[in-house]
Amino acid sequence: MTAELALLGTTGAVIAGGLIESLTHRRRLEKIPIRIHVNGTRGKSSVARLIAAGMREGGIRTCCKTTGTLPRMILPDGTEYPVFRPSRANVIEQIRIVKTAVEFESEALVLECMALIPYLQWLCEDKLVRATHGVLTNAREDHLDVMGPTERDVAWALAGMVPRGGKFFTAERDHIDIYNQVTAERGTTIIPTTEEDVEKITPLDLAGFSYVEHAENVALALRVCEDVGVDRSVALRGMWSAKPDPGAMMAYEMDFFHRKINFVNGFAANDPESTERIWKMALERYPDVDKRIAIFNCRADRPDRSDQLGTVIKNWPEADRYLLIGSGTYIFARAATNAGIDPMKLVFAEDQPVDQVFEMIVELSEGNSLVMGMANIAGVGLDLVRYFANRSRRREFK
């Protein structure tokens, strides 16, 4: 056999194997009658968890996979397991998740979209999920290096996961014209979550959560649960009892050698609009503190995010100190000082371990202090949340 024939035979075997795997995956998808694909700039992990919890409470056997702060597989009984990744995240892992859901005889599967590149947004939906229900939380300025350069470009990129011939739920309103156009092209019914829907979420509804949950997320999740036949009160009860994502907004209060430190985990919010909103919420929660310390966890591989946040913070209520942790902190510092932040208020803790970051927080604190983490949960951000969680009193942030 010549080398050319051997190569041709090998190529044919690879193609045949791929076709068989594709057909097998399609058959598995058909065994799961309800497939819900969740995407968006902010809140998609929370919404995926809320939908799955509401459906479980309604008696629908549901698996859920989120990729938020930590990738998690949630089984029909609510048990969570980490998603094993032999290397970096890859959209192909959705095939393995579908296989697991079938093995657990799931009637429904809620999947958080893990793609950023516009082409992969479409690939995930059209080839790997083929959702009966597409869900989009919002489209905001984030990951502009991949989906930008503008917020509207982000909205178009996220439109790649609109399913064909199914239903599409969204709480996005600024770019609704894009989703009206795409759903019409794909024969999909669009079901927007309106301001009136959000207003129906009462303070009592939100009081059932042990962490900060946004009315928009709850309203969106309830619309999806209602569509699959789960009563509102039943779905809401399930959502209250669900375990939050590790990045959910929590407050931790600590008395440390005559210093009271109120730490708010806002690391998971990383676009300017969301981050400003939760910073103001934290200030309202702790209005009479002696020091306000804003921690920005920077990432050298997310330079656009550091530049965005550094550029806009001058327009927010001012902090007494800005503690910069993680990597690539100079990008944030340059943008912040160019925007008018006093450079003397910047404190650098580049690549410092969590215990050293904590020591710096203590040194910066005075009397009664508010300390809030922002920008990125990965790496030392999550370590810091765990550090406070293990040493403090957790408070419901309402």
UniProtKB/TrEMBL annotation:
<dbReference type="Pfam" id="PF08245">
    <property type="entry name" value="Mur_ligase_M"/>
</dbReference>
<protein>
    <submittedName>
        <fullName>Capsule biosynthesis protein CapB</fullName>
    </submittedName>
</protein>
<dbReference type="GO" id="GO:0016881">
    <property type="term" value="F:acid-amino acid ligase activity"/>
</dbReference>
<feature type="domain" description="Mur ligase central">
    <location>
        <begin position="38"/>
        <end position="152"/>
    </location>
</feature>
<dbReference type="GO" id="GO:0005524">
    <property type="term" value="F:ATP binding"/>
</dbReference>
<dbReference type="InterPro" id="IPR013221">
    <property type="entry name" value="Mur_ligase_cen"/>
</dbReference>
<dbReference type="GO" id="GO:0016020">
    <property type="term" value="C:membrane"/>
</dbReference>
<dbReference type="InterPro" id="IPR036565">
    <property type="entry name" value="Mur-like_cat_sf"/>
</dbReference>
<dbReference type="GO" id="GO:0045227">
    <property type="term" value="P:capsule polysaccharide biosynthetic process"/>
</dbReference>
<dbReference type="InterPro" id="IPR050061">
    <property type="entry name" value="MurCDEF_pg_biosynth"/>
</dbReference>
<dbReference type="InterPro" id="IPR008337">
    <property type="entry name" value="Capsule_biosynth_CapB"/>
</dbReference>
